[in-house]
User: Fold Guanylate kinase from Deinococcus irradiatisoli.
Amino acid sequence: MSATLHTPEVQPSAARSTGVSPAISAATGPSRRGLLIVMTGASGVGKGTLREKWLKDQNVFYSMSWTTREARSGERPGIDYHFVSAEQFEAHAQAGGFLEHAEFVGNRYGTPRGPIDEALSRGQDVILEIEVLGAMQVAAQSEEAVLIFIMPPSLGELRRRLEGRATETPERIEKRLARAREEILEARHFRYVVVNDDLDRAVDDLCAIQRAERLKAERLSDNVLQSIASE
Assistant:
């Protein structure tokens, strides 16, 4: 089993026009603990596309999930997911190696724990793109988790997107849509809801959430406040 369980961190060439800046100062080191941002939503809602555009040029840690399902056309092992056997997954789960893990439509998904704790401690924001049940598990374990639910414009549009992928049988699509109905009704339990009806607008919303969370007074450490007050 590969020792590399996550994608490399993205090194920014410059801050984005949205005003979201890198988390770590070269002169002073981490000024705060990183944000633990959990993005979830129904299958087919466009989480992957949103995530790639949102995180472009940001110095964040994207935690790649493990899964027992087969790779879809265009998915890259070690980039999109860490594809493993059911036996490998179960062994890692029994060893306590996942922050969360859940089963979805017959396949298992999990988020490795260790790399996330390390990234947060060094002041780097961590992004998890996981299933709804997994997001609820993270929320139960961590009060600091920022939960974002990505909402489709409608179930009809979600059906169109799932059918357009042409990767699953009609029966499996119906199962995903039935699950999506249940998940949408749980959206009010999340801190934020972003409707993915326009890609650029949805990305702007995600950047605004990230910036607002960074500016919360509760995230300032005593050392930072004392340093400012002593100047």
